[in-house]
Design a protein that fits this description.
alpha+beta; OB fold (Dihydrolipoamide Acetyltransferase, E2P); 2 domains; 13 helices; 16 strands; about 25% strand; elongated; binds adenosine-5'-triphosphate; binds manganese (II) ion
C-alpha cells in the first residue's frame, strides 16, 4: 500500500502542505460538535499522529473511530495546532479492519499480569510498544558495537551434544518416541537422530572459543535454552544471549569490554529512544533517566568475591540464606551488594573454583578462578564471564576433578594444544539488559512470547 510512515508525517517539515496517506490503528477518538480527533499509531513513532476531522466536510464511518480499528487516512499534512510536529487534516478515511467492542485492550490502564494472558495483543499498548522499540534499538547497537571494533559475528549451533554446563538444565532434542525396551541410555540414543544424546544449547561459549582462538575477537547473539525450574522474574526457558569471546585477553580486559558495551548500549537507547525512555521514567521507574545517565558516565565498581563475602557476612542476619566463604551468591546477596553497598554496577571477581565452571582460569592461590559477574541494581546478575583456562594440563585436571567425559571435549582441549592463547569472554542476558534500561520488573514482559515452566503460549 502506498502510504507514509507516521514518524515521517509527524517530523518532516517539508511534508507540510502536501497530501499523503497514512495507515494505522486507532488509539483514541474524541468527538465534538464541529470537529473530531483520531489518534493513530503505526509503530514507527512513539508519539501518535493526530488526525483532525472537519465534521462539516467529511462524514466518517463509525467503525473507523473504534479503539483498535485499522484505518487508512488520506489528508493534508499541517503544522500541529498545539505542540510540536505535524498533524493530518483528513480528506478521506477508509476502514481496513474493524475492531469489535470485546477488544481486550481498553483505554483504562490494565495490569501487566492481565496483559501477560494476551501476549498476542499486548504489543498494542504504549508500554509494550516502547519495550520492543528499545529492545530493537539495543539489538542493533550490540551489532554496531562489535562491528565497529572488528569482532566477527559468529552463529554457534543451537543443537549440541555437550551437556557439561547444562547438566540438568538442558532441553533434550529427539525424534524418538518413548521406548521402554532400551536397557541403557546409550542404547536408546543410538537409534535417535544424531545417534547420541543431544540437546538445546545453554550457551555458545565453548564453540565461540573455537572461533576466537582462530580469528581473535568474536561475538554471538542468539537464543540460549535453559530448563531451569526456577520460577523467577529473571529467568526464561528461552532467552537471548550476547557472548563475546576475545583472544589475547585476561580478566581485566574482559571486564573493560563488558563495561564499555553496557555504557555504549545505554547511550544508544538514551539517544535513539528518548520518547520511550521518558515514558518509562514517568510510568514505570521514577528516576530511570537519571539512573541511566549516571551509569553511563561513572566507573563501575570492582570487588573481589572474598571481600564481598566479608561485607555480606556482617549482614547475615538480614538474609534468608546466610553466606560464608564458598557460598554461591543468591539474588538477595547480589542485590544487597549493588544496591546498598556500592549503589552502582559492580563486578564481583575471583570466585571459589568449586562454585564455578571447569573452563575458568585457575588463579595462583589454588582456590579461586578468574571469573566475574556484573551485578546491577534492581536485577542482580546481568553478565557472567571469565578468563578461560588456556593451560592444557590445568584444564585437563579440572575436568578430571569433575569426572567429565574427556572424549567429548577433544576439540575443546585441542584449542590448548595448538597455539593456545590467554582468552576470555562473557555472557550478557539480553532480556535482563532490556529490563534494566526500561525499568520493567518481570523478564516475561520484555520478550515477545515468553517461555517458562508450564507456559508456552
Ligand atoms: P543466574 O545465576 O542469574 O541464574 P547464571 O549464572 O546461570 O545466571 P550464566 O550462565 O552466567 O547465568 O549466563 C550469562 C547471563 O545470561 C547471565 O548473567 C544472565 O544475564 C543471563 N541468563 C542466564 N540464565 C538466564 C535465564 N534463564 N533467563 C534469562 N537470562 C538468563
Ligand atoms: Mn553467571
Amino acid at each position: 500500500m502506498k502510504h507514509t510512515d507516521i514518524y515521517e508525517v509527524l517530523n518532516k517539515q517539508d511534508l507540510v502542505g502536501s497530501e499523503t496517506v497514512v495507515c494505522g490503528w486507532v488509539r483514541t477518538f474524541r468527538d465534538s460538535a464541529q470537529v473530531a480527533f483520531l489518534e493513530l499509531s503505526d509503530g514507527t513513532s512513539f508519539p501518535r499522529l493526530q488526525v483532525v476531522i472537519d465534521k462539516n466536510a467529511l462524514s466518517v464511518d463509525p467503525e473507523c473511530t473504534k479503539l483498535g480499528a485499522s484505518v487508512a487516512v488520506r489528508g493534508e499534512v499541517v503544522k500541529a495546532f498545539k505542540g510540536e510536529g505535524n498533524e493530518l487534516n483528513a480528506k478521506e478515511i477508509s476502514l481496513l479492519g474493524k475492531c469489535p467492542p470485546e477488544y481486550p485492550i481498553q483505554k483504562k490502564r490494565t495490569t501487566l499480569e492481565f496483559l501477560r494472558t494476551i501476549p498476542h495483543l499486548r504489543l498494542r499498548t504504549n508500554t509494550f510498544a516502547a519495550v520492543f522499540r528499545v529492545r530493537s534499538v539495543a539489538a542493533q547497537a550490540i551489532h554496531r558495537f562489535f562491528h565497529e571494533r572488528r569482532y566477527y559475528y559468529m552463529n554457534t549451533p543451537l543443537i549440541t551434544a555437550s551437556d557439561c554446563e547444562g547438566a540438568g538444565e538442558m532441553f533434550r532434542v529427539t525424534t524418538q518416541p518413548w521406548n521402554a525396551a532400551c536397557k541403557t541410555e546409550e542404547e536408546y540414543y543410538k537409534n535417535d537422530f544424531f545417534g547420541v544424546k543431544a540437546g538445546l544449547s545453554v550457551s555458545g561459549q565453548l564453540e565461540g572459543e573455537i572461533a576466537a582462538t582462530a580469528v581473535g575477537k568474536i561475538y554471538t547473539f542468539g537464543p540460549s535454552f535453559r530448563a531451569e525450574n526456577s520460577n523467577t522474574t529473571r529467568h526464561l526457558a528461552e532467552f537471548w544471549h550476547v557472548e563475546p569471546e576475545i583472544a589475547f585477553a585476561e580478566l581485566p580486559d574482559v571486564i573493560e569490554v563488558a563495561e564499555e558495551l553496557l555504557k555504549y548500549l545505554i547511550n544508544a537507547v538514551l539517544t535513539e529512544c528518548p520518547d520511550e525512555i521518558k515514558f518509562f521514567d514517568s510510568f514505570v521507574e521514577k528516576g530511570l533517566i537519571e539512573k541511566l545517565t549516571h551509569v553511563a558516565t561513572s566507573d563501575f565498581a570492582v570487588c573481589e568475591y572474598t571481600k564481598a563475602i566479608e561485607i555480606l557476612e556482617k549482614e547475615n542476619s538480614r538474609f534468608e540464606f546466610p553466606v560464608k566463604w564458598g557460598s554461591d551468591l543468591q539474588s538477595e546477596h547480589e542485590k544487597f551488594l549493588t544496591e546498598q553497598v556500592f549503589q552502582r554496577p559492580v563486578f564481583v571477581t575471583n570466585y571459589p573454583k568449586e562454585i564455578k565452571s571447569f573452563y575458568m582460569k585457575q588463579n595462583p592461590d589454588g582456590k579461586t578462578v578468574a571469573a566475574t559477574d556484573l551485578l546491577v541494581p534492581g536485577i542482580g546478575e546481568i553478565i557472567g564471564g571469565s578468563e578461560r583456562e588456556a593451560d592444557y594440563e590445568k584444564l585437563l585436571s579440572a575436568m578430571k576433578e569433575r569426572n567429565m567425559d574427556l572424549s567429548a571435549y577433544k576439540q575443546y582441549l585441542d584449542l590448548r594444544v595448538f597455539g593456545s592463547v590467554p582468552h576470555g569472554g562473557f555472557g550478557l542476558g539480553f532480556e535482563r539488559f532490556v529490563m534494566y534500561v526500561t525499568g520493567m520488573e518481570n523478564i516475561r514482559d520484555v520478550i515477545l512470547l515468553p517461555r517458562w515452566t508450564k507456559n508456552i503460549m
